[in-house]
Amino acid sequence: MAPSVSKPALLLNGEELGEHIDLASELLVAGVEVIFRNIEELAIDIGPGGARIRETVSGRDLADFGLVQVMAYPRPTATLLNAVADYLAANGVRTVNATGVGAPTRLFKYVRLANRGLSVPSTVYLPPRLPLDAYHDLALRLDLPFVLKTVTGGGRDSLVANEGEFTKKLQSAENARGFLAQEFIPPDGSYFLLVLGGCVSFALQHRSIDGGDLLEMSSWEDATLVEPKSLDPVAQSTAVQAATSLDYDIAGVHLVRHWTTGQWCVVDVSPNPPIGSGGHIADKVSAYSAYLKGRLADPNQADSENSLDPIFIDERHFD
């Protein structure tokens, strides 16, 4: 038998290659160890310590493979692929046919931010088909209550405190391409920061609404306007790093401070912040106009926005 290379290759969605022959055995004879897995056999965990993606059959971290090749794109591959590709790139793993496919989902953003060393609330990816014991595992890992949201965004985030609520939320989310279960951090004292051209140009502090939904923050009108220069420098740098990590020259960043670790956690980064809607419009427009004047006065300055936006491929073409 020929000696095998030091690290195996992972082939995602390549089951049909071995339909007529034991391809893994044939390749092993040639000195190449190949592992076949499908997209449903990946687990994704994100937290303050970083991101981890593993295949669930043997529990091997994708960072331990020498190469990852994507063979086909059945749902929900396109939803997950840019997050997987970013994780592999951050860990120096070569990829084949794994870039340029996917939407900039919440999952992708969280993985990208964690790969850049930023803190996000502990988050677990849940595939569309969940194991029966998913709730109990999540309750142990994230504590109760935890937040349930869709991978792709849209719809309202839900607070889950028991198994019945968990099951009901999943059953009511038809056609979802997966879910994110996330550690609940109360929004009291959370911030919306407008990052323009690498600077925090506008800041609002929200508070929780007493007696209402724990996920709900005060409205734009009730939020407190904050002078950006008076903000915690760590909060400012975290917001700027979050926008820069996603190559957004214009971004609305939602930050919240973890009540036990004291870390500033990034809850959301949007390239389409509500400049012309919500409250404090005059202040936001003033900051935005100053940004545009600066950009127009220096047309040679590179604008990073959209430099990473992947090509979205409708997964219906791969079903």
Give a brief rundown of this model.
It is globular and about 65 Å long. With 319 residues, it is of the alpha+beta class. α2 packs parallel to α3.
Largest beta sheet, briefly?
6 strands, antiparallel
Distance, first to last CA: 39 Å
Please state the average pLDDT score: 84
Q: Tell me the number of helical segments per DSSP (H or I, 4 or more residues long).
A: 7
The 3D shape can be described as globular
Count of extended strands: 15
Structural classification: alpha+beta
Q: Strand portion, in percent?
A: 15-25%
Assembly status: single chain
Low-confidence stretches: 303-319
Give me the side-by-side strand order of the main sheet: 4-3-7-10-8-9
Order of helices and strands: EHEEEEHEHEHEEHEEEEHEEH
Rounded radius of gyration (Å) = 22 Å
* Helix fraction by DSSP (H/I, runs of at least 4): 25-40%
Could you characterize what this model shows?
By secondary structure, this protein is α+β, with helices and mostly antiparallel strands. It has helices at 23-29, 77-90, 106-115, 134-142, 163-172, 233-245, 281-297; strands at residues 9-12, 34-37, 42-47, 50-55, 67-70, 94-96, 123-126, 146-150, 158-160, 179-183, 191-196, 199-205, 224-226, 250-257, 264-270. The strands form three sheets. The protein has a six-stranded antiparallel sheet, sandwiched between helices. Strand 5 (67-70), helix 2 and strand 6 form a beta-alpha-beta unit. The chain is globular, with a radius of gyration of 22 Å. The chain starts with 8 loop residues before the first strand and ends in a 22-residue tail after the last helix. 36% of the residues are buried. Residues 303-319 have low confidence and may be disordered.
